[in-house]
Amino acid sequence: MRERLESLILQTAADLLAEAGDSEPLAGVTVEAPRQQEHGDFATNAAMVLTKRLRKSPREIAATLIERLGTGDGLIDRAEIAGPGFVNVWLAGGQWHDVLDRILRAGADFGRSDEGKDRKVQVEFVSANPTGPLSVGHGRQAILGDCVARLLEATGWSVVREYYFNNGGRQMRVLGDSVRARYLEQLGKAAAPPLDALQDAEADWPETLDGLPVVFPRDGYQGDYIGEIAAAIRDREGEGWLEEPGEGGFRQEAETRIFADIRRTLDSIGIAFDVYFNENGLYDAGEIDRVLDDLRASGLVYDEDGATWLRASELGLGRDRVIVKSSGEPTYLLPDIAYHREKFGRGFETIIDVQGADHKDQGPYVKAGVQALGHDPDQIEFLFHEFVTLSSDGHTVKQSTRKATFITIDELLADIGVDVFRYFMIERRAQSHLDFDLDLAKEKDWTRNPAYSLQYTHARTFGIERQAEERGVAMPTPEEVDTTRLALPEELELVKKLGEFPEVVSRAASSREPHHIVYYLREVTGLFNPYYQDKDRHEILTEDEGLTRARLGLTLAVRSVMAAGLRLLGMTAPERM
RNA sequence: GCCCCCGUAGCUCAGUCGGAUAGAGCAUCGGUUUCCUAAACCGAGGGUCGCAAGUUCGAGUCUUGCCGGGGGCGCCA
């Protein structure tokens, strides 16, 4: 309906330009629902935009526009000039009734669209290396990536969720060494380093302690999970692994167990990846070498100080970057470029990389790399999110993966549950810092919790249904709802808000901003709860069967939108709370 | 020093393509319940949209500078 009105207005405005001999295309004209209800159902700035080009006053143009629009084939009830030259349009009453009818007929599909046209998009997120449990920071990225993927699915894209990981390299060696050290300590063959030495990088590091060697790496992983993995190995192997290198069985065992934990955590917050992509696959397939050769052929690579450099400064970037160290080992950048070329090879039209703020200025280098290889860098989108800071008792809790002072998703879930977790992780837009109050999170009394109130609005529609059943009233089918019976302003306002849902989904999907869904659902809740509550004006279950069916229809429409919205957020939509 | 993000009500944050009187939740204060679930609703107070210029019919929104907070500027990933 908005589309119909919009095209009508755009066409009329274009006609006015054409008649004035101006053949340039029309730009900047909007048709939107105004904030104030008194400003009509829709408002357009067309008259003000055309002022210069038609060399007439906005109000004069507005008057012409209104005259030309007329009733717009029955779409328009009336139109008025307002303020500096807005044209406010009120739709004919029946239009809103049609909207409700469409929502009811669409049911669970309302809000979905095919604008993605089944094009392939990849969303890569989390991508944490298997060195430890997922932290709350990973949680934000996980929920953000998943919700973006859900939005894209709802708008007709063919989505692949992907997790990229690296199980080689220095990090993993340190991990294996850390496990091995704990294993030796548990068998009494080594001494644990003192706590103060672990916590202070400047402190003295003992070679031996009480006659036992200290084998724990100075920069080792300190979390309890390391000791647990070591204990599992000890229980199974006894002293059989005394000669096993950290890089061997210990590293492997740690990776297997940690990855299993990560997957279980992801599963527990409702996330399933389609692809787990191992960086090693790129080496095995010879992709790294091929990319290096191709980059050399592009002339954007040179050798200096024994290392190989990407001439990124030539592509407008800050500085050149090393892609192969003088040791012959590639830096992260080379496999990253190779990985992205591989993504292009899989035919994705759009590639979305969800990453933390600390990766912000690396994106351009990856883009520069793929551009040098002949791909369109604009097909890659980086979606950066700022950090999650945790606070407790008014103080920020310091987090460090290595020192294991971070709060894991698992710990938080035990306190607040998946739905509340997902809600708080997605409520704010990605580029805002997320200050997560642990005390609030651990507070059991969630009666003031906005996550809860969204779910409750959905549950309330079932409460109404149960109440209706008790009175022997069945929920109506779309055919049984005579939408014209809904005439109260608050009912039309609610219908109007529900009708915006597809647009909200579309905008949230194309801007990759799932938080819009949250705020929209809060608005629906904010209209439906008072409507339900104000029993003096409008009980839903009345003596009038037709009116009751219409209001139950409205209730069902609210249910559809709330259910669809909650599903986009990955939250459950309970029937009873 | 350079680059990126943020700065909006007491707190935490929304604010669509630049649009009319800047919103929500929480908190505070006052009220509402023989009722379709009070896990609710109604009302009130609370704003120099960090500061200053600029762009224009119009700026929380765009540009520049400054201030404050966060992140990044490795042959780490």
What is the structure about, briefly put?
With about 575 residues, the chain is of the alpha/beta class.
Give me the CATH fold name of the largest domain: Rossmann fold
Strand content is 5-15%
The CATH homologous superfamily of the largest domain is named: HUPs
CATH class bucket of the largest domain: Alpha Beta
Q: What's the CATH architecture name of the largest domain? A: 3-Layer(aba) Sandwich
Radius of gyration, whole Å:
30 Å
User: How much helicity do the residues have?
Assistant: 40-55%
Instruction: Tally the beta strands.
Output: 17
Tally of helical runs: 20
Strand order, main sheet: write it out. Answer: 9-6-5-13-14
Any overview of this molecule?
- With 577 residues, the protein is of the alpha/beta class.
- The chain has four domains: 2-92, Arginyl tRNA synthetase N-terminal domain (Gyrase A, domain 2); 97-114 and 448-568, Isoleucyl-tRNA Synthetase, Domain 1, CATH 1.10.730; 120-165 and 271-385, 3-Layer(aba) Sandwich (Rossmann fold); 169-268, no CATH class.
- The protein is 48% helix and 13% strand.
- The chain is built from 20 helices and 17 strands.
- It has helices spanning 2-19, 46-54, 58-69, 94-106, 136-154, 169-186, 195-199, 224-237, 246-268, 280-284, 287-298, 333-345, 363-372, 409-426, 438-442, 450-470, 489-499, 501-510, 515-533, 545-568, and strands at residues 31-32, 42-44, 76-82, 86-91, 120-124, 158-165, 208-209, 212-213, 275-278, 301-304, 307-310, 321-324, 350-356, 380-385, 388-392, 395-397, 434-437.
- The strands form five sheets. Strands 9-6-5-13-14 form a five-stranded parallel sheet.
- Strand 7 and strand 8 (212-213) form a beta hairpin.
- It is globular and about 95 Å long.
- The structure holds one RNA strand of 77 nucleotides.
